[in-house]
Specification:
3 helices
Length: about 80
């Protein structure tokens, strides 16, 4: 595989991971936060997949941070939400 394509995949993985981190940080402050956090989990997973294809350590770490932050944000949203 050509080098520009590999770097494109690496950049895409990191961009997906950063978007997942953004969803995790914004989610608890929105009324539809759980939907945003689930989207962040998906983006983090896709970022990890792209990072593992390229064997990009930074992309994988960013994706794992996104996933962990989204899980924490889901628990925070669940604890602070009104009982139904």
């Amino acid at each position: 595989m050509s080098e520009p394509l590999k770097s494109h995949r690496s950049f895409l993985g990191m961009a997906l991971s950063v978007a997942g981190i953004a969803c995790a940080l914004v989610g608890p402050f929105l009324t539809i936060g759980i939907s945003i956090e689930l989207t962040g989990l998906i983006l983090g997973g896709l970022g990890y997949y792209r990072g593992s294809q390229k064997e990009d350590g930074l992309g994988q770490v960013l994706a794992l941070v996104a996933i962990v932050l989204c899980v924490i944000a889901l628990f925070v949203s669940g604890l602070t939400g009104a009982p139904q």
